[in-house]
Amino acid sequence: MPGPPPVGPARRVGVPPPRKPMQRASVRGQVLDALRAALVGGELAPGEVYSAPALGERFGVSATPVREAMQQLALEGAVEVVPNRGFRVIRRGARELGELAEVRALIEVPVMLRLARSVPAEAWARLRPLAEATVAAAACADLARYAEADRAFHGALLGLSGNQQLVQVADDLHRRSQWPLVTGPVSGRRADLVADAAEHMALLDALVARDLAVVQSLVREHFTGGDA
User: Fold this and answer.
1) I want to staple 197 with a disulfide (CB 3.0 to 4.6 A). Which of 18, 88, 135, 176 is the partner?
2) What digits encode the pLDDT tens for the residues 45-104?
3) How many other CB atoms are there within 10 angstroms of residue 109's CB atom?
4) Rounded CA gap, 205 and 192, in Å?
5) pTM exceeding 0.85
6) What's the number of CA atoms in the CB half-sphere (13 Å) around residue 221?
7) 86 - beta bridge partners?
8) DSSP helix/strand/coil, 189
9) CB 46: neighbour CB atoms within 10 A?
10) Distances in whole angstroms, Cα of residue 116 to Cα of each of 124, 149, 169, 196, 222
11) Helix crossing, 94-118 with 186-209: angle to 10°?
């Protein structure tokens, strides 16, 4: 009596065949990126309520991916749900931003000092393009671009620890500290960003030289500045 037909390598019993990748996650991700850029750039103002349909019309998509993206931003602490109206952009005062900076310093300063003692100079040198990207974004006062470049630089520094949980926690704190960003004239914001980016370059130089005293001073000063 012949046995059952063999199961091919691409199929397993009880597992449905693969489908074409769904596109909703891609749309939601694009909308989420656009909303984050709008938050950092000040296009979505703290205290204002925005509806998913109105934002969907702005981005040329339905309300569903906007609502899903906004729910993610609510989890990140950037907005809060207003029943039957939409989402209100959170107002962050100086105290909360200072608390976020303090927590980031408690996490990142000791890690940076440990890495400064063990990571070879060539590994730090490879991160220079990321630091230069923050300088370029600061020079043209592109807040959204700077926010992404800043997080990429800090993430790469901490990534040398090999601890992905640390990187994720630090990135979440960093993102929370980035909105709402600076208020006031663009010239003032540009000056803050240029100074912040210059600290990135100085920090890399100190790390390459293994100058622990300068590393500690720069990292602490970086966080004291608030929006680092």
Assistant:
1) 135
2) 888 999 999 999 998 999 999 999 999 999 888 899 999 899 999 888 788 888 888 899
3) 16
4) 20
5) no
6) 14
7) 82
8) helix
9) 18
10) 9, 22, 21, 20, 16
11) 20
